[in-house]
Amino acid sequence: MSPLRSNNNNNNNNNGIGIRISWDSLSGHHYADVGGEQLWADVLRATLERGLAPVSWTDYLYLTVGGTLSNAGISGQSFLHGPQINNVLELDVVTGKGDFVTCSPHMNSELFFAVLGGLGQFGIITRARIPLQKAPTRAKWVRLMYTDFSQFTGDQELLMSKTPDYLEGSLITHHSPPNNWRSNSFYSPSHYPKITSLLESNNGILYSIEVVKYYDHFTAAETIDNEVEYLLRDLKVVPGFIFEKDVTLTDFLGRVEIREDDDEGGSAEAHPWLNIFIPKSRIQDFNAGVFVDIIGRQNKAISGPILFYPFIRKKWDDRMSAVTPDEDIFYTLGLLHTSGAHDWEYFDKVNNAIVGFCEKWGIKIKQYLPHYKSEQDWMKHYGPKWKTFVERKNKFDPRRILSPGQRIFITSDQHEVITNSDV
Length: 423
Ligand SMILES: Cc1cc2nc3c(=O)[nH]c(=O)nc-3n(C[C@H](O)[C@H](O)[C@H](O)COP(=O)(O)OP(=O)(O)OC[C@H]3O[C@@H](n4cnc5c(N)ncnc54)[C@H](O)[C@@H]3O)c2cc1C
Known about the structure:
Blueprint: E1 19-24, E2 29-35, H1 40-48, E3 52-53, H2 65-69, H3 78-81, E4 90-95, E5 100-103, H4 109-115, E6 123-134, E7 138-146, H5 149-161, E8 166-172, H6 192-201, E9 206-215, H7 221-232, E10 242-248, H8 249-253, E11 269-270, E12 274-279, H9 283-297, E13 306-312, E14 329-335, E15 339-340, H10 344-360, E16 366-367, H11 375-382, H12 386-396, H13 412-422
Antiparallel strand pairs: 1-2, 2-6, 3-6, 4-5, 4-6, 7-9, 7-10, 8-9, 8-13, 11-15, 12-14, 12-16, 13-14
Helix pairs in contact: 9-10
Bound molecules: flavin-adenine dinucleotide.
Pfam families: Cytokin-bind (PF09265), FAD_binding_4 (PF01565)
Cofactor: FAD
Domain FAD-binding PCMH-type: 1-135
């Protein structure tokens, strides 16, 4: 694994906020004031220098703070701490009216909640205040394999109750192998024959849990071993299919490396991804219709990671613009396809088949990083929040100048410009 790439030489420049770490004597906590343009990789590097770190991350760190806070910012820490949008103390925002506003849950709170998960519709985030905690230094990183979907999701939910520091899950298929760009080289070549033979014997689909427990120099070896042993107790993993690594926190959080010259991440590639949230009550139907039928039986070649893991709804503040299914537990599917620049339509069709299956069988999914073309679809996406979304738009960006590329509120002139620039 490579160390974090340095992308930014001006973390603390004089032209912007940069990344500034402070101590709040009232709450007794540290926080970082971070420019909206800063990359999370740089936030990690700067905070670790002080032995501190944010608690909620994305899998990939070369994304901007303003960009992920405009969506949600999800990863394996979200079940415990909520998404990144739930871990913000204060924001500076330039609204569509040109007002510069500092906002928080207690000050100008309507703008604060509008902007978080607001797809850039209400203002430009120029500063975010992120709470920090003492950083662990190492991670026990474990992967577990399952042939049975119910046991896989049952164990994910059991693990949530045991509060590890990170919990995700994924599918392994012939086209989505155990090692991929999301976490290269976790498995050694010697693991492959064993995994492949399990895959063959299970109709080409395996389910895998990824779970992590952090620790630091002060933790006795016996203590962390006992903690991992407790996490793994009573799980229904296929015997002999537990794989473990012990890495630095930086190696773990920086595990997703995509370089422009990578085969799978290069600029000549297209990434027609589908990210959706699925209510827990329908995940069995989803498995049968999507994983077993569309991806498995129809042998659709989904190249790229297929993520599937749970969240707890109460960790998402419903006053924010982001939307989730209306159930206490919901799962996320991340179909992170990589296609050539010219064959993305095939993957688009697979994505549409999955969304169509959910519509047909009444599975009330919500898209994450949504793409819709009609106002009706956006209204359906936001559901009961649509009215508030429109009121906030009228209040903070009445001329609809912000982020027209999301195609939520576009005038016919803008539509023409966007459509032409799409070609
Ligand atoms: C390789 C890769 C891996 C990813 N992994 C994850 C992941 O693990 N978890 C996850 O949650 N997401 C993930 N994403 C999605 C990511 O959260 C969104 O694409 C996000 O918009 C990326 O931020 P950006 O800096 O690239 O934003 P940009 O592409 O620059 O902007 C996207 C949109 O965000 C809004 N925006 C951007 N900056 C601001 C700002 N300062 N103020 C207001 N609005 C703004 C605008 O609407 C803009 O159109 C991933 C994306 C990629 C490309």
